[in-house]
């Protein structure tokens, strides 16, 4: 009964995707601004073409009644020839504009921050390479410093995904066996919503992520905190939760640094409670949501690769208490 209550509570607070402003018409970086100008250019050019077609159509209908058959044919030939030439020029111009807009923006003098992002069904693995070979691994939430170029090295583990943050850059496909790169810079601090933009399975629409742009000082503090091991349990319930987590199959799929859990199949959970959302944007990060997801992930996100782990009500409460403390 308690498990059902937790599931209902989570369902009431669930969202179809994590919140955050998401619009290709609100550029917050040079790459997005270039695409915004390209979109505006397309709208103006194609709108002008439509207007010209309507004017020519109206003029043709008005003059047709007064023209002789021979004159009408000559005018039609000139109109068709002119339209063909205009089409070639417009298509060539728009193609060149698209090519120039999609080229990587210059990195400037700052060394880019390199982040490796891997798409899986249906979540995002995020890796910050360490200078000493000790990589920082997290999931579904990418922190970056404002004003510094960011180089995202993209890959896919299973099927084709597509990395898209409309406010910051264009789409970039992630194809298994082929690595891609996306470079962008955030002008202002804020939280920007991203999502998978290539159909990748039944939960494709619920594969979101957040990019948190912050000052360099805030980013450095966040990274230092994330590199630390999981905090020791503060109470008896949390200690019991850690014990259950290590004894159950959870540790075979997830890593929590500082514990016996060292699995690599699922997301790294060392600091899971510091993230804003759970399950790639499906649930807000609360203890109730953690309990509901742990109790029955297939009800919340059908088809995901997390199996149902049988837990008693007391074990579920303890595990959720411990996970909620991992900040």
Main-sheet strand order equals: 3-2-1-5-8
In the predicted model, the low-confidence regions spanning at least 5 consecutive residues are 1-17
C-alpha-based Rg, rounded:
26 Å
Overall geometry:
elongated
Strand content: 15-25%
Determine the N-to-C terminus distance: 29 Å
- Counting DSSP H or I runs of 4 or more residues, the number of helices is 9
Helicity, as a percent range: 40-55%
DSSP, total strands:
12
| Major sheet attributes | 5 strands, mixed
Oligomer: single chain
Look at the structure and give the mean pLDDT: 85
Properties at a glance:
alpha+beta; disordered N terminus; 5-stranded mixed beta sheet; 12 strands
Task: Describe the fold and architecture.
- This protein has helices at 2-13, 30-64, 69-102, 216-227, 236-247, 250-253, 287-295, 297-300, 313-324, and strands spanning 113-120, 123-128, 136-139, 141-145, 150-156, 161-164, 172-174, 180-184, 190-196, 208-214, 277-278, 283-284.
- The strands form 3 sheets. Strands 3-2-1-5-8 form a 5-stranded mixed β-sheet. The chain has a 5-stranded mixed β-sheet with strand order 4-10-9-6-7. Strands 11-12 form a two-stranded antiparallel sheet.
- Mean pLDDT is 85; it is low at 1-17.
- The two termini are 29 Å apart.
- It has 9 helices and 12 strands.
- The protein is an alpha+beta fold and 327 residues long.
């Amino acid at each position: 009964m308690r498990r059902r209550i937790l599931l209902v509570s989570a369902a009431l607070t669930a969202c179809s995707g994590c919140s955050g402003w998401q619009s290709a018409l609100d550029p917050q970086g040079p790459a997005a601004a270039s695409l915004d100008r390209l979109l505006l250019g397309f709208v103006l050019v194609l709108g002008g073409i439509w207007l010209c077609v309507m004017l020519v159509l109206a003029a043709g209908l008005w003059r047709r009644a007064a023209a002789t058959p021979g004159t009408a044919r000559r005018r039609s030939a000139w109109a068709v020839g002119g339209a063909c030439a205009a089409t070639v020029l417009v298509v060539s111009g728009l193609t060149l504009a698209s090519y120039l807009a999609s080229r990587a923006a210059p990195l400037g003098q700052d060394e880019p921050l390199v982040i490796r992002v891997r798409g899986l069904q249906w979540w995002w693995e995020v890796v910050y390479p360490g200078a000493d070979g000790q990589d920082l691994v997290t999931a579904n939430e990418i922190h970056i410093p404002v004003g510094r170029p960011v180089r995202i090295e993209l890959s896919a583990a299973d099927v084709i995904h597509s990395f898209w943050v409309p406010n910051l850059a264009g789409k970039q496909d992630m194809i298994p066996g082929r690595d891609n790169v996306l470079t962008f810079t955030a002008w202002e601090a804020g939280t920007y919503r991203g999502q998978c933009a290539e159909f990748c399975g039944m939960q494709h629409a619920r594969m979101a992520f957040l990019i948190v742009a912050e000052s360099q000082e805030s980013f450095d503090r966040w990274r230092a905190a994330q590199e630390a091991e999981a905090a020791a349990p503060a109470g008896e319930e949390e200690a019991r939760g850690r014990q259950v987590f290590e004894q159950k199959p959870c540790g075979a799929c997830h890593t929590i640094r500082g514990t016996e859990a060292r699995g690599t199949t699922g997301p790294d959970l060392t600091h899971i409670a510091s993230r804003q959302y759970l399950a790639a944007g499906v649930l807000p990060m609360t203890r109730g949501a953690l309990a509901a997801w742990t109790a029955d992930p297939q009800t919340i996100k059908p088809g995901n690769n997390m199996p149902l782990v049988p837990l008693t009500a007391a074990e579920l409460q303890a595990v959720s208490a411990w996970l909620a403390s991992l900040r």
